[in-house]
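Appendix B, example 12.
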Amino acid sequence: MRCHGPDDWETPTQPPPEGGGVGRCPRSGYRPPMALRPLTAGPSLRFVAVLAALIALLPALAAAQQARLAGTVYDLEGAVAGAVVRLVDAGGGRSEATTDGAGAYLLAGLGSGRQAIEVTKAGYQPSVGEVVLAEGEAPTRLDVELRRLDERVPGGPASGVDATLAAAVRRWLELGNRLLEQGRGEAAQAEFEKALPWLDPAGAAEAHRALARCRYLAEDVEGTVGQLEQAVGAEVRAGLEAGELGQSSSYQLLRTLLEQLGRTDELEQRVEAATRDASDALAAAAPPAPRAPSREPEAPVRLTRDATGRLRVAIPSGTTAPDVAELRRRLGDAHFAAESSPRGARGGALDLSDESLALFVPAVYGEEGAARRQDEPWGLLVWVSPTPGGMLPADPALEELLAQRRVLWVGAERSGNRRPSWQRAALALVAADVVLAHYDVDPERVWVGGYSGGGRMASALVWRWPERFRGGIFWFGADFFADLPVPFRPGARWTARFPSPGRDEQRLLRQRRFVYVTGERDFNRSETLVVSQAARERGYEGVTYLQVPGADHYLGLDAEWLGRALEAVE
């Protein structure tokens, strides 16, 4: 007999025996070769009966009194009527309610404790997760978001997959999950392999982890290692930053397995290979970026005071880089987890000798003269890009917008998502220092912004350096300092990405402005909305949420909406 339940495979339950080995299954005594999770591929792909089985393995809470569950089911346009809310308790008992015209539901007479929940309606992706119920007069509150079948959710079918095929992919994954939970690894492997070519990178990472579990059920150790290596690469393709590899589920599983096999010397080589292959795949798939060679010199030049135009400049010698220890204190250890010693650091600071900045300074800045600039100082937008380039996109509408609003632009080069996040933060801080030293910029009009992964980095910079930035523009991506619930995956949470601000920082942050921009069809929309609501609920009144109608994640930097964001951040 082998252990097939998730709790059996999560972590070793006993220390390894002398001479190697791993933890032992408490039911059968079988020692698995590693810890592996079953595929979730997004809770919309999980089966509610599987969740009920998982819950049965967890410590039960007291059920002396009856509990109630109430809430609202909604979608992008508002309340969803006629949605079915189902609960399954640890004993297999089921309860069901249907939402009314206001999207509201109420389930009464429930036992307290952890229960599986599934919310369904035709035309929507199922929302599946878990909820913990407590007895008492007030019902437990759970609002659930449903997403339409054509909405893209990370961890599912890739964009461009038609609805019929997407539904088939979900069925294959659901069947694979059920077969895997039954210990039928070979049959489960066939289902996951059918789904794999049609999954987005986040879904592919979960599929590779599930395939790894299938292979170790067949005692194929090398196949297990290979699947986990591919899972690491898929997470990189999904947008995982180099500095965050240590937080990756796939990385942690691969490291654990190699440690248990006594092959830790392979870890760095395998991760580097997976990262390199993923980066090559991204580069091959990416469309060529629009360029204007005559306006953007290839080599960085020396920055002179009050120079205008589109400039690629070397960081002046003598510029002081932020201390690595201070970056660690502000950002948290997680941003350094994948590095035993920070690369590119000399004497506790980032080596700036090979770094460069991309600036856009409107011509009118130089035409109006120093006297007016002293009377009406310009603002500065420090931009963190998800790609290696830091230059303002070559769009006349964007150039005109910055000139009208009297804003300079600067972005560090080679500071995209593939770079360790602590280095991206350091370069953004250096970029602000360099511009302030060479231009007439009002320190009260210095903001930081970024797109996608750059928006996440920008949010950390505003929350952790409020004395440097007066606000932030988080374009289609944002992080927060506290765990937050995922509205379309009951029981799941987005984890905090940096430490909470201290008392002095909170005082400054009450005076700062936070502008969250997302698209109606952006796969980060729900998270962006929840983050903005969490900031407002904590008393930060300078929060603006902007949602671009019909836009997906790849809108780009739009002049109209950037103008609205700049107006809000002022």
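Confidence is low (pLDDT under 50) at residues 1-48, 57-64, 285-297. The longest strand covers residues 441-451.
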